[in-house]
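Teaching assistant's notes for section 4

Start the section by putting this record on the projector. Ask students to predict, before seeing the second block, whether Cytochrome P450 will look compact or extended. Collect guesses on the board.
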Amino acid sequence: MDNRCPVHLDTTGRDIHGEAAALRAEGPAVLVGLPGGVCAWSVNSESGIRRLLTDPRVTKSARNHWPAFINGEIPPDWEMISWIAMDNMVTAYGKDHVRLRRLVGKAFTPRRTTAIRPRVVQLTNELLDALAETEPGEVVDLRERFAYPLPARLVADLIGMSEEARAETAKVIDMMVDTTVSPEQAQAVLAGWRGAMAELIAAKRREPGEDITSDLIAARDEDGSRLSEQELTDTIFAILGAGSETTINFFDNAITALLTHPEQRDLVLSGRASWDDVIEETLRAESPLAHLPLRYAVEDIELDGVTIPKGDPILVNYSAVGRDPALHGDDADRFDLTRPDKAHLSFGHGPHYCLGAGVARMVATVGLSSLFERFPGMELAVPRGELRPLPTFIMNGHRSLPVRLTARSSAAPV
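Reveal the predicted structure now:
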C-alpha cells in the first residue's frame, strides 16, 4: 500500500497483448499498480514465470504470507477481495495445499473425463441445434449462445448445481473477474458467491447426488479435520469459476482466431492441421488468463537481476508467456497452426497445474470440431477491431462475439 508503482495496469483490459509486451520490455518483473492503490510485481518472461511457478518460496496464501492483508491494511471492500479471501486448494500453502489438491484431484481422473464425454456431446448438440434455427443472415452472439453455456452448464452439472442457480451465480463470477468494479460491488461479489455455495452445500447434504459437491461433503463429514466448512465452500466455488470462465474465453479466442485467419481454418477443416493444433496454438497466442492474482514472496526472491522482497504480492502475466520472443521468435504474435513449438503455460505449471486440463481439452475438441462441422462457413459480423474486450486485466476475451452462420447440414454431428 504505497506509491512505488511506476506502471498501473489498465483495469478496462483494452489492449491485453500490447500491455504485456510493454511490461516484458520493462523487465522480467515490474511493479504495477492494482485497484485500491495496491502494488504488485508483474512477472513477464516465460523463463521467469516457469521458475516462479515451481519455487517453494512462492505462495498463494494471503492469510499466511501477505503482511498488508494480515495487518488489516487491505480493507474488506477492496476491489479484488474475492481473489484473496478464498480458503481452498488455490490459496492453500504447503501441507494444506497437498491435502486439498488430493481431495479435489479425485474428481478429475481420466476415467471421469471419459465418463462425462457423452454429456459434453449432448450439450454441444443441443446448443448447435438451437443455433441452426437462426434465420439466414441473422447476427448471433456466439459467446452468449455457445462459448459461454457449454462449459458453464457442464461444470454446473459436475458440481450438482441447477441451471437456475448456475445462471444466477454466473453474474457473480462475471463481476469477480471485472477489474472495474467498485468497492461496494466487490463486497457484494464475495457475499454473493459464498451465499450461493452455502445453499448448494445445504441442498446436497439433504439430497446427495453423483456429483463433486456430494463427494467433497462426504470426505469432510467422514473426518472433519480433512476439509473445513469454509474450505468446502470455497473449493466448490473455485471449481465452478476456474472450470467455466477460462474455457469460455478459450472458445471465444479460438473461434475468433479461426474466423480471422481463413487460411488457418482451411488447414484444420481440410485435415492438414488437427484440433489439437488449434487448442495448443490458441492457448499459446491467446491465453484465456491474462494477469492472474495473487501470489506472494515467502522470502526475498531474485529473478533475473530483480529482487522481489519478502511479503510482496505477485501477478503472473500469462498473456506475456506464449508471445515471448525469447521462446517463440520474432513471429510470436502470429497465430500459426503449423508452428512446431506451441509451448505455453496457460494451464499453469508446477504444484498449481490445472487439475481440469484433461476435461478442458476434451470439451474444447468436442465443441470446436462440432461447431465448425455444422457451420464451416460462418463469419464474423463485424471487423475484428470492433470486438470489445472484457473489462478486466485478469481474463482475455470479448464481451460478445457476433457472427453470421452458414449451415452445411441440419443433421447433428455424431
